[in-house]
Amino acid sequence: MGIFDILFSKTYSAVLHISSANGFHLRPAARFVAKAKKFQAEMEAENRGKSVNAKQLNALLSLNLEPGDHFELTCRGKDAQEACDTLTEYFTSLMQDDREIELLSKTEEEYEAPAISGEIIAGGIAMAPVWQYRETETEVEAKVSFEEAVSESMKALEILHETHRFQQQGEVYLAQKELLDSLQAEATSLEGLEEAVLRAEKALSGGKLEAKVDDYYDILHRVKSYLGYQTTVAYPKEPFILIADELRPSQIETLRQYPVAGVILRHTTLASHAAILLRAASIPSLIIENDSLPESNEALLDAGSGLFIPTPTTQDRAKAEHKQTRHILAKQDAFEKRFEPARTKDNKPIQVFANVTDTLSAKQAKEEGAEGIGLLRTEFLFKKERPSFKSQVETYTQIFTLFDEITVRTLDVGGDKALPYVQFPHETNPFLGIRGIRLLQTHPDMIEEQIHAIFKAANGKAIKLMFPMISSVEEFNHAKAFSKEVARKFQCDIDNISFGIMVEVPSVLFAMEAFNTVVDFYSIGSNDLNQYLFAIERTHPSLSLPSRSKVLFDAIETIVTKADKPVSICGELAGDPEAIPILIEMGIETLSVSPSAIAQTKERIRNV
Ligand code: PEP
Ligand code: MG
């Protein structure tokens, strides 16, 4: 971008509010910066009189933006206006997507021996000797220059990001790549990089992002490894409980190759990337802020109860073993029976379907024992860019061939689900605006192309087409007529297509008689239904939406009682072990849950 572009271009600015309870932390900030770099505009972020380059992750993080803070984004240059609008919208979606770290509640357990209590990262039981973390650093002659070491590290992080793009690790590596990119602007030598890391550590110290310092050290460590500095950690060959001050995120990957039974970290937080990755790897782990945890050759870690017992009695060990065996057997048993149908104790069959987003998750659902797809959330295929007609047909075809029973939902965006490349009209209250099927009013071409692709992929197969956010019979009739017109225009055979709705807007409950005359099926979207019943955003950072209220169950019962067409449920409630017996009692016969919850949902049904 030339100097004239900057000097003579208009300035656009917007105030962005940090609504996530986690603050504007590393992962969303990295995604923001990656997006910002795509624009030819100079950008600044300003908070409390401090102004930094908004395209530099390190600089952006130094603003230490906490929940409730805001910053002013100013864009200047060629595509300043587009940059400002797009980034404002993108920022809102980043805040909404950023889930609060779930606090796991402790199960009560009493042990005879003294126990030290901690915060749960991930539950489970470990019994093994304690091993205190220690590493040794050796230096061999460097074969590459500092610049080459940085460039190799960038490449390695890019590959790691790509390899893990559908998992949480993927975001961690993207964040580290962006961090390194911004650090290399500050440092031209290893010493310079070390100083930059120290400066970052100082800037983050005491703030909500303090634990992200580990990521800086992880990067430093990676660059140093290319420069000949090798760190060796001699992990034991037998099962062990690791005690460390903190771990660098990349060390968790390495750790999984060793027989680690449990982990205790002393100086980290639940929001650190190490904690997130330990939870993703299901390694029993706790945070215990105690610098003098005793050594032990036979310690007990009951992470689910938040307890570390350095010298358990024989009774304690027997109790923990029993608990562990019960847990493992129950999980194994459920997993082994995952392909068997689920019947309640009085022999009532309940179908367990999966909620999927793409071919990968549909295949996973098949392996996990799903009997069909109860909800194909097609918006995930549209998340990054608008998919072509051809690629949509390919994806739908791949998914449709996996199961006999498929329910595919038309694009459900708007409100909390933004599409980066679609400009929605400004709305004061997007949750009550152009969402779901209402997109037909603003972007009919996109829906037409999608429905055409679905019909083409169905190719005569029986597929259920479901419309999201339907609030009136007229809306459904219009969507169905629109679909029929698509079929006529492109000469698609739709004899086996049935048409139904998500029940997630409360008005539907009061029009069930009329709906019964037009729809072929209903699927209850308990997530949105709940938020609209209580008028509380489902992702609201501070207001808490009750998840199992009598109001929600009464609403579901009303739907089941009034419906004379098949009703399934595909919101989160369908996989909730406490809700399952109530839903079955009400007459629900199909539950659609996430692929990883299929086996346990079937097992829960068998105990109803
Ligand atoms: C729901 O609202 O319950 C639902 C299943 O849809 P989504 O979560 O995709 O909005
Ligand atoms: Mg919904």
Structure description:
The protein is α/β, with parallel strands linked by helices. The chain contains 21 helices and 24 strands. Helix 2 runs antiparallel to helix 4. The chain folds into four domains: 3-97, 2-Layer Sandwich (Histidine-containing Protein, Chain: A); 116-135 and 233-312, Phosphohistidine domain (Glucose Oxidase, domain 1, 3-Layer(bba) Sandwich); 136-232; 349-606, Phosphoenolpyruvate-binding domains (TIM Barrel). A hairpin with a 5-residue loop joins strand 16 and strand 17 (349-356). The longest helix has 23 residues, at 314-336. It is globular. Strands 16, 17, 18, 19, 20, 21, 22, 23 and 24 form a nine-stranded mixed beta sheet that branches. It is 40% helix and 18% strand. It binds phosphoenolpyruvate and magnesium ion. Phosphoenolpyruvate binds at residues 375, 377, 412, 504, 525-528, 570-571. Phosphoenolpyruvate is lined by residues 375, 377, 412, 504, 525-528, 570-571.
